[in-house]
Amino acid sequence: MRCPFCGAQETKVKDSRLSGEGDQVRRRRRCTACNERFTTYESVEMNLPRVIKQDDSRVAFNGRKLRAGMSRALEKRAVATEQIDAAIFRITRKLSSSGEAEVSSREIGDLVMEELRNLDQVAYVRFASVYRKFEDVNAFREEIERLQKLQTREGQNHHHPSAESVEKK
Asked: Which residues fall within 8 angstroms of residue 126, CB to CB, at 6 or more apart?
């Protein structure tokens, strides 16, 4: 690994440990020429599909763009970096395991919406406003109502017995 400080080729690994969800190795290195220390990350290169954009052009999947979009939506929200990393990992895993050679940007946006809905409702609505090109306040209202209905439905699906029904047994 080339030293980012002096450009020397010889560096020594001082410490290695798993990072993220165990899908990445963090290595502390020391340059043998200038003795500076630096960190590198090693991860598996996944075979991700090409992205079909709205204008029908095809581009390589860019994980940095995915992270940037989610980070913008989550700006100033109380969501841990580990939760964001896990969400990005789930999205890329779904994309790579799909077996598809190409995927539409809309499908990726839908996966991001699903993850944001589970992470933070404000971030979800922020992302939705850009992703679905909200034109006015009514679009925000409709999306919030849709989110509330979805939560109500999910709450009913995960219904726990009430104290009353437990006491009767």
From this structure: 72, 73
